[in-house]
């Protein structure tokens, strides 16, 4: 019997925390002035500062209305109202690194002393470019045209400008990065609705965090404003974790592994985690709306030799090149790391946290003191 699709109502965000947290001081890239050579040069300097010093930054005035964003949160809410047995129909081959579709909660132990499992649910939607035929559950299928329009807008209104600014900052042709992030080509980009189920006060008291420190594997990750404070980033200078404050009308963006490889670690792939929210927000689930951008699958993750900036600054090799191991394509890197990420109970053994993802690249335990450098 088909699952009935409820009418999509408005989305109400929880109130922000009143606790005085140690917020990270992040750069804001304002795209309202984007488009002229002078403005783009200035914006590129802001972007380079952000991805060199913190790896996380805000973007505002990106020409996507809050109403459109709210509707995506509402779609995500309706999806997670589905019965578990319905969501389980859309689970991909997680153990072999597949990730489009539904990942159920409980695949990781987050407190080894008590055996407490994670309560993280993920639903990923790939690009709408013909390379990823997929069946969709009713709440998603009902709004598929709107979801596609939203995902494509993230490329034209947010990602393409950021890639142009990055190219300017590295003294490359302006289309250098847009040419390896074309929407119509095959890449493992995806839109994500992500739910962190709440824990009881007693359970939260035993937890240090809901997810361990990690980096993302692609180019840029876009995170829409989520007022439940839980995201923390690791300061590359001090090694300490700071909270990321939700800012009205902004996206929170972080640079990721692929850009770090392509720039010989000039661009930082930022360590971040999701921790236990403040006490005044622990009574609610945390729904996230994200977009993960990745280079096209056939792009080889070798350091860009054409950049005068990288040459002058001495960023001429990445981990693979330095170790004389084969440099992977983006597709090879994606599925090697996704297979590692999707392994059930992967944090139960400490040796897993420092596993070799591919020859030449070893994972790091980013929650331990001293592990402060990005990829």
TrEMBL record:
Gene3D superfamilies: B-lactam Antibiotic, Isopenicillin N Synthase, Chain. Residues 28-125 form the Non-haem dioxygenase N-terminal domain. Pfam families: 2OG-FeII_Oxy, DIOX_N. This is Fe2OG dioxygenase domain-containing protein. It comes from the Eukaryota. Residues 194-294 form the Isopenicillin N synthase-like Fe(2+) 2OG dioxygenase domain.
């Amino acid at each position: 019997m088909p699952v009935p699709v409820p009418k999509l109502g408005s989305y109400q965000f929880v109130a922000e925390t009143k606790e005085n947290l140690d917020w990270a001081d992040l750069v804001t890239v304002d795209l309202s002035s984007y488009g002229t050579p002078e403005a783009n040069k200035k914006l590129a300097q802001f972007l380079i500062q952000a991805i060199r010093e913190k790896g996380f930054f805000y973007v505002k005035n990106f020409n996507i209305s809050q109403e459109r964003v709210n509707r995506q949160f509402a779609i995500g809410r309706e999806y997670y109202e589905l019965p578990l047995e319905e969501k389980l129909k859309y689970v991909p081959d997680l153990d072999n690194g597949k990730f489009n579709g539904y990942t159920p909660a409980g695949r990781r132990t987050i407190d080894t002393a008590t055996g407490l499992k994670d309560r993280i649910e993920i639903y990923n939607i790939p690009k709408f470019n013909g390379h990823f035929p997929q069946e969709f559950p009713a709440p998603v299928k009902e709004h598929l045209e709107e979801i596609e329009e939203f995902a494509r807008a993230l490329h034209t209104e947010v990602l393409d400008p950021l890639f142009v600014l990055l190219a300017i900052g590295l003294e490359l042709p302006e289309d250098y990065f847009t040419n390896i992030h074309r929407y119509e080509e095959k890449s493992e980009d995806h839109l994500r609705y992500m739910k962190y189920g709440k824990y009881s006060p007693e359970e939260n008291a035993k937890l240090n965090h809901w997810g361990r420190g990690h980096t993302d594997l692609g180019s840029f990750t876009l995170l829409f404003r989520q007022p439940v404070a839980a995201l923390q980033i690791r300061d590359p200078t001090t090694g300490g974790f700071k909270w990321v404050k939700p800012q009205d009308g902004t996206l929170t963006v972080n640079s990721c592994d692929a850009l770090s490889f392509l720039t010989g670690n000039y661009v930082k792939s930022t360590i971040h985690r999701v921790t236990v929210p403040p006490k005044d927000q622990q009574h609610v689930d945390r729904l996230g709306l994200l977009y993960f951008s990745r280079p096209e699958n056939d792009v080889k993750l070798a350091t860009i030799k054409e950049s005068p900036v990288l040459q002058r600054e001495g960023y001429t090799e990445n981990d693979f090149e330095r170790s004389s191991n084969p440099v992977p394509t983006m597709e090879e890197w994606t599925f090697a790391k996704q297979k590692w990420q999707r392994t059930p109970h992967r944090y139960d053994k400490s040796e897993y946290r420092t596993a070799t993802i591919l020859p030449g690249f070893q994972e790091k335990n980013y929650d331990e003191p001293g592990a402060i450098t990005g990829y």
